[in-house]
Design a protein that fits this description.
- The structure is a single chain.
- This protein is an alpha/beta fold.
- It is about 40% helix and about 15% strand.
- The protein starts with a helix and ends in an 8-residue tail after the last strand.
- The structure holds NADP nicotinamide-adenine-dinucleotide phosphate (NAP).
- The site of NADP nicotinamide-adenine-dinucleotide phosphate (NAP) has 28 residues, from helix 2 and strand 7.
Length: about 280
Protein backbone atom coordinates (compact mmCIF):
# COMPACT_ATOMS: atom_id res chain seq x y z
CA UNK A 1 0.00 0.00 0.00
CA UNK A 2 1.13 3.59 -0.74
CA UNK A 3 2.13 5.25 2.58
CA UNK A 4 0.70 8.79 2.91
CA UNK A 5 4.12 10.49 3.30
CA UNK A 6 5.63 8.74 0.25
CA UNK A 7 2.53 9.67 -1.71
CA UNK A 8 3.00 13.33 -0.73
CA UNK A 9 6.69 13.27 -1.64
CA UNK A 10 5.75 11.70 -5.00
CA UNK A 11 3.37 14.60 -5.64
CA UNK A 12 6.08 17.10 -4.63
CA UNK A 13 8.65 15.44 -6.92
CA UNK A 14 6.21 15.34 -9.83
CA UNK A 15 5.41 19.00 -9.18
CA UNK A 16 9.06 20.05 -9.02
CA UNK A 17 9.88 18.11 -12.20
CA UNK A 18 7.06 19.82 -14.08
CA UNK A 19 8.06 23.27 -12.77
CA UNK A 20 11.84 22.89 -13.11
CA UNK A 21 12.36 20.90 -16.31
CA UNK A 22 12.40 22.43 -19.76
CA UNK A 23 9.56 20.83 -21.73
CA UNK A 24 10.07 20.31 -25.48
CA UNK A 25 7.43 18.83 -27.76
CA UNK A 26 8.51 17.52 -31.15
CA UNK A 27 5.85 16.34 -33.57
CA UNK A 28 6.88 14.17 -36.51
CA UNK A 29 9.33 12.53 -34.10
CA UNK A 30 9.32 8.97 -35.45
CA UNK A 31 11.99 9.51 -38.10
CA UNK A 32 14.37 11.93 -39.78
CA UNK A 33 14.92 15.43 -38.44
CA UNK A 34 12.16 15.19 -35.78
CA UNK A 35 13.76 12.09 -34.23
CA UNK A 36 17.17 13.78 -34.22
CA UNK A 37 15.71 16.84 -32.42
CA UNK A 38 14.53 14.49 -29.64
CA UNK A 39 17.99 12.88 -29.37
CA UNK A 40 19.82 16.21 -29.44
CA UNK A 41 17.67 17.85 -26.77
CA UNK A 42 17.94 14.80 -24.50
CA UNK A 43 21.75 14.84 -24.86
CA UNK A 44 22.19 18.57 -24.36
CA UNK A 45 19.48 19.97 -22.09
CA UNK A 46 19.00 19.16 -18.43
CA UNK A 47 16.66 18.90 -16.62
CA UNK A 48 14.39 18.20 -19.57
CA UNK A 49 11.19 16.43 -20.54
CA UNK A 50 10.85 15.51 -24.22
CA UNK A 51 7.38 14.84 -25.60
CA UNK A 52 7.83 12.91 -28.83
CA UNK A 53 4.64 12.94 -30.90
CA UNK A 54 4.08 10.64 -33.83
CA UNK A 55 1.13 9.05 -35.59
CA UNK A 56 1.94 5.43 -34.66
CA UNK A 57 3.53 5.26 -31.17
CA UNK A 58 3.19 1.46 -31.03
CA UNK A 59 5.51 1.00 -34.04
CA UNK A 60 7.92 3.87 -33.23
CA UNK A 61 10.86 1.60 -32.30
CA UNK A 62 13.48 4.38 -32.25
CA UNK A 63 11.39 6.40 -29.78
CA UNK A 64 10.89 3.34 -27.57
CA UNK A 65 14.71 2.89 -27.56
CA UNK A 66 15.19 6.55 -26.66
CA UNK A 67 12.70 6.25 -23.79
CA UNK A 68 14.71 3.25 -22.46
CA UNK A 69 18.00 5.17 -22.71
CA UNK A 70 16.57 8.20 -20.88
CA UNK A 71 14.26 6.83 -18.19
CA UNK A 72 11.55 9.25 -17.06
CA UNK A 73 12.45 11.89 -19.64
CA UNK A 74 10.55 10.80 -22.76
CA UNK A 75 6.79 10.79 -23.22
CA UNK A 76 5.57 9.34 -26.52
CA UNK A 77 2.16 10.67 -27.58
CA UNK A 78 -0.03 9.98 -30.60
CA UNK A 79 -0.49 12.90 -32.95
CA UNK A 80 -1.53 12.41 -36.55
CA UNK A 81 -1.49 16.07 -37.60
CA UNK A 82 -4.36 15.40 -40.00
CA UNK A 83 -6.59 14.51 -37.01
CA UNK A 84 -7.54 17.61 -35.04
CA UNK A 85 -8.82 15.50 -32.12
CA UNK A 86 -5.36 13.87 -31.75
CA UNK A 87 -3.82 17.34 -31.32
CA UNK A 88 -6.53 18.42 -28.86
CA UNK A 89 -6.18 15.19 -26.81
CA UNK A 90 -2.38 15.49 -26.72
CA UNK A 91 -2.63 19.09 -25.49
CA UNK A 92 -4.93 17.96 -22.67
CA UNK A 93 -2.47 15.22 -21.63
CA UNK A 94 0.46 17.68 -21.70
CA UNK A 95 -1.53 20.23 -19.69
CA UNK A 96 -2.34 17.63 -17.00
CA UNK A 97 1.18 16.16 -16.90
CA UNK A 98 3.43 19.21 -17.29
CA UNK A 99 1.17 22.30 -17.14
CA UNK A 100 3.35 24.08 -19.73
CA UNK A 101 5.50 23.72 -22.85
CA UNK A 102 8.70 25.68 -23.58
CA UNK A 103 9.35 24.60 -27.17
CA UNK A 104 7.12 23.12 -29.90
CA UNK A 105 8.79 21.89 -33.09
CA UNK A 106 6.45 21.12 -36.00
CA UNK A 107 8.57 18.75 -38.05
CA UNK A 108 6.07 16.39 -39.76
CA UNK A 109 5.66 16.96 -43.48
CA UNK A 110 5.51 15.20 -46.82
CA UNK A 111 6.90 16.16 -50.22
CA UNK A 112 3.76 14.87 -51.94
CA UNK A 113 1.64 11.71 -51.41
CA UNK A 114 3.47 10.18 -54.43
CA UNK A 115 6.83 10.78 -52.71
CA UNK A 116 7.98 13.07 -55.56
CA UNK A 117 7.29 16.74 -56.22
CA UNK A 118 5.32 17.67 -59.39
CA UNK A 119 7.63 18.63 -62.27
CA UNK A 120 4.86 20.40 -64.24
CA UNK A 121 1.14 21.24 -64.15
CA UNK A 122 0.45 17.85 -65.77
CA UNK A 123 1.39 16.16 -62.48
CA UNK A 124 -0.85 18.34 -60.28
CA UNK A 125 -3.90 16.69 -58.71
CA UNK A 126 -6.42 18.27 -56.37
CA UNK A 127 -6.09 15.37 -53.95
CA UNK A 128 -2.28 15.55 -53.90
CA UNK A 129 -2.36 19.29 -53.30
CA UNK A 130 -4.97 19.09 -50.52
CA UNK A 131 -3.18 16.20 -48.74
CA UNK A 132 0.14 18.05 -48.80
CA UNK A 133 -1.40 21.29 -47.52
CA UNK A 134 -3.34 19.42 -44.81
CA UNK A 135 -0.22 17.79 -43.37
CA UNK A 136 2.35 20.53 -43.96
CA UNK A 137 0.31 23.68 -43.27
CA UNK A 138 -2.96 22.93 -41.49
CA UNK A 139 -1.27 20.54 -39.02
CA UNK A 140 1.28 23.07 -37.67
CA UNK A 141 -1.39 25.79 -37.38
CA UNK A 142 -3.69 23.49 -35.37
CA UNK A 143 -0.70 22.58 -33.19
CA UNK A 144 -0.31 26.31 -32.45
CA UNK A 145 -4.03 26.62 -31.70
CA UNK A 146 -4.02 23.89 -29.03
CA UNK A 147 -0.51 24.35 -27.63
CA UNK A 148 -0.21 28.16 -27.49
CA UNK A 149 -2.02 28.34 -24.09
CA UNK A 150 0.66 25.96 -22.74
CA UNK A 151 3.46 27.90 -24.44
CA UNK A 152 2.17 31.05 -22.73
CA UNK A 153 2.73 29.21 -19.43
CA UNK A 154 6.30 28.26 -20.43
CA UNK A 155 9.33 29.36 -18.46
CA UNK A 156 11.38 30.62 -21.42
CA UNK A 157 13.77 27.69 -21.06
CA UNK A 158 14.89 27.85 -24.72
CA UNK A 159 16.32 30.90 -26.51
CA UNK A 160 17.85 34.08 -25.11
CA UNK A 161 16.14 36.21 -22.45
CA UNK A 162 17.00 39.92 -22.29
CA UNK A 163 16.82 41.60 -18.85
CA UNK A 164 13.74 43.73 -19.78
CA UNK A 165 10.56 41.92 -18.73
CA UNK A 166 8.61 43.40 -21.66
CA UNK A 167 10.93 41.65 -24.14
CA UNK A 168 10.96 38.22 -22.50
CA UNK A 169 9.25 35.19 -24.03
CA UNK A 170 7.66 32.16 -22.41
CA UNK A 171 7.86 29.70 -25.29
CA UNK A 172 8.96 29.09 -28.86
CA UNK A 173 7.18 27.59 -31.88
CA UNK A 174 9.42 26.30 -34.68
CA UNK A 175 7.76 25.53 -38.00
CA UNK A 176 10.05 23.46 -40.17
CA UNK A 177 9.94 25.13 -43.56
CA UNK A 178 12.01 24.67 -46.74
CA UNK A 179 13.95 27.11 -48.88
CA UNK A 180 11.76 26.07 -51.82
CA UNK A 181 8.81 27.63 -49.92
CA UNK A 182 10.40 31.07 -50.38
CA UNK A 183 8.52 32.97 -53.12
CA UNK A 184 11.42 35.43 -53.52
CA UNK A 185 13.93 32.61 -53.99
CA UNK A 186 11.87 30.59 -56.50
CA UNK A 187 13.69 30.63 -59.84
CA UNK A 188 13.08 27.01 -60.93
CA UNK A 189 9.34 26.35 -60.49
CA UNK A 190 7.90 22.83 -60.05
CA UNK A 191 6.93 21.10 -56.78
CA UNK A 192 3.63 23.03 -56.66
CA UNK A 193 2.16 21.28 -53.62
CA UNK A 194 5.27 21.32 -51.43
CA UNK A 195 6.30 24.88 -52.34
CA UNK A 196 2.75 26.17 -51.77
CA UNK A 197 2.41 24.31 -48.46
CA UNK A 198 5.65 25.81 -47.11
CA UNK A 199 4.90 29.33 -48.43
CA UNK A 200 1.53 29.15 -46.63
CA UNK A 201 3.24 27.76 -43.53
CA UNK A 202 5.54 30.79 -43.56
CA UNK A 203 2.47 33.04 -43.61
CA UNK A 204 1.14 31.11 -40.59
CA UNK A 205 4.50 31.73 -38.84
CA UNK A 206 4.22 35.45 -39.48
CA UNK A 207 0.57 35.64 -38.36
CA UNK A 208 1.32 33.63 -35.21
CA UNK A 209 4.28 35.84 -34.36
CA UNK A 210 1.99 38.89 -34.48
CA UNK A 211 -0.89 37.41 -32.46
CA UNK A 212 1.31 35.64 -29.90
CA UNK A 213 3.69 38.62 -29.78
CA UNK A 214 0.94 40.88 -28.44
CA UNK A 215 0.42 38.80 -25.32
CA UNK A 216 2.51 39.04 -22.20
CA UNK A 217 4.51 36.90 -21.89
CA UNK A 218 5.13 36.44 -25.60
CA UNK A 219 5.59 33.34 -27.73
CA UNK A 220 8.35 33.50 -30.35
CA UNK A 221 7.50 31.85 -33.68
CA UNK A 222 9.95 31.19 -36.53
CA UNK A 223 10.26 29.10 -39.68
CA UNK A 224 13.54 27.15 -40.02
CA UNK A 225 15.05 25.56 -43.15
CA UNK A 226 17.28 22.58 -42.31
CA UNK A 227 19.32 22.44 -45.54
CA UNK A 228 19.14 19.35 -47.74
CA UNK A 229 19.21 16.54 -45.22
CA UNK A 230 19.78 12.81 -45.63
CA UNK A 231 16.26 11.56 -44.77
CA UNK A 232 13.45 9.64 -46.44
CA UNK A 233 11.78 12.87 -47.58
CA UNK A 234 14.68 13.97 -49.80
CA UNK A 235 15.83 10.43 -50.76
CA UNK A 236 14.51 10.49 -54.36
CA UNK A 237 16.79 13.49 -55.05
CA UNK A 238 19.98 12.48 -53.21
CA UNK A 239 21.85 11.49 -56.36
CA UNK A 240 21.62 15.11 -57.63
CA UNK A 241 23.04 16.59 -54.41
CA UNK A 242 26.84 17.00 -54.01
CA UNK A 243 28.09 14.97 -51.01
CA UNK A 244 29.11 18.06 -49.01
CA UNK A 245 25.65 19.62 -49.51
CA UNK A 246 23.72 16.60 -48.21
CA UNK A 247 23.69 17.06 -44.43
CA UNK A 248 23.41 14.37 -41.81
CA UNK A 249 20.44 14.84 -39.46
CA UNK A 250 23.00 15.36 -36.65
CA UNK A 251 24.71 18.27 -38.44
CA UNK A 252 21.44 19.91 -39.50
CA UNK A 253 19.86 19.68 -36.04
CA UNK A 254 23.03 20.98 -34.35
CA UNK A 255 22.85 24.06 -36.65
CA UNK A 256 19.11 24.50 -36.03
CA UNK A 257 19.50 24.19 -32.24
CA UNK A 258 22.21 26.89 -32.37
CA UNK A 259 19.58 29.15 -33.96
CA UNK A 260 16.85 28.12 -31.48
CA UNK A 261 19.16 28.72 -28.51
CA UNK A 262 19.81 32.25 -29.80
CA UNK A 263 16.15 33.18 -30.43
CA UNK A 264 14.56 36.22 -28.81
CA UNK A 265 11.45 38.33 -29.45
CA UNK A 266 13.46 40.47 -31.90
CA UNK A 267 13.76 37.45 -34.20
CA UNK A 268 10.11 36.37 -34.13
CA UNK A 269 8.08 36.13 -37.35
CA UNK A 270 11.09 35.39 -39.57
CA UNK A 271 12.47 32.47 -41.57
CA UNK A 272 16.06 31.36 -41.08
CA UNK A 273 18.20 28.82 -42.92
CA UNK A 274 20.41 26.29 -41.08
CA UNK A 275 23.41 28.70 -41.26
CA UNK A 276 21.48 31.50 -39.51
CA UNK A 277 20.91 33.56 -42.68
CA UNK A 278 17.44 35.09 -43.01
CA UNK A 279 15.36 33.69 -45.89
CA UNK A 280 13.30 36.04 -48.06
CA UNK A 281 9.54 35.34 -48.03
N1 LIG B 1 15.05 16.37 -45.56
C1 LIG B 1 15.25 17.53 -46.18
O1 LIG B 1 16.15 17.66 -47.05
C2 LIG B 1 14.39 18.72 -45.87
C3 LIG B 1 14.66 19.92 -46.56
C4 LIG B 1 13.89 21.05 -46.28
C5 LIG B 1 12.88 20.97 -45.32
N2 LIG B 1 12.63 19.79 -44.67
C6 LIG B 1 11.55 19.77 -43.69
O2 LIG B 1 12.01 19.21 -42.47
C7 LIG B 1 10.94 18.54 -41.81
C8 LIG B 1 11.35 17.13 -41.45
O3 LIG B 1 11.57 16.42 -42.66
P1 LIG B 1 12.35 15.02 -42.69
O4 LIG B 1 13.38 15.15 -43.75
O5 LIG B 1 12.74 14.62 -41.32
O6 LIG B 1 11.21 14.05 -43.23
P2 LIG B 1 11.03 12.47 -43.06
O7 LIG B 1 12.30 11.81 -42.69
O8 LIG B 1 10.31 12.03 -44.30
O9 LIG B 1 10.04 12.36 -41.80
C9 LIG B 1 8.75 12.85 -41.93
C10 LIG B 1 8.10 12.74 -40.58
O10 LIG B 1 6.79 13.30 -40.68
C11 LIG B 1 5.88 12.38 -40.11
N3 LIG B 1 4.53 12.55 -40.66
C12 LIG B 1 4.15 12.56 -41.95
N4 LIG B 1 2.82 12.74 -42.02
C13 LIG B 1 2.37 12.85 -40.76
C14 LIG B 1 1.10 13.05 -40.17
N5 LIG B 1 -0.01 13.16 -40.90
N6 LIG B 1 1.01 13.13 -38.81
C15 LIG B 1 2.12 13.03 -38.04
N7 LIG B 1 3.34 12.81 -38.54
C16 LIG B 1 3.46 12.72 -39.87
C17 LIG B 1 6.46 11.01 -40.43
O11 LIG B 1 5.86 10.05 -39.58
P3 LIG B 1 5.66 8.48 -39.99
O12 LIG B 1 6.93 7.80 -39.54
O13 LIG B 1 4.46 8.08 -39.23
O14 LIG B 1 5.48 8.43 -41.48
C18 LIG B 1 7.93 11.29 -40.12
O15 LIG B 1 8.19 11.24 -38.74
C19 LIG B 1 9.75 18.63 -42.77
O16 LIG B 1 8.92 19.69 -42.38
C20 LIG B 1 10.39 18.92 -44.11
O17 LIG B 1 9.50 19.60 -44.99
C21 LIG B 1 13.36 18.67 -44.92
Amino acid sequence: MFHKSSFLSFIRNAHSISVMAAVALIQGASRGIGLEFCKHILRNKSPVAVIAACRNPESAADLAGLADQHPGKVTVLKIDVNQEHDIKNAAEVVKKTFGKVDLVINSAAMLHPSGKGETSLRDVSGQGLVSTLTTNTVGPLLMAKYFSPLLLKGSGAFGQQPPEKSKQHSGIIVNMTAKVGSIGDNALGGWYSYRMSKAALNMATRNLSIELGRSRPKVVCVSLHPGTVNTDLSRPYHKNVPQDKLFSTEHSVQCLMNIINGLSVEKTGKAFAWDGSELPW
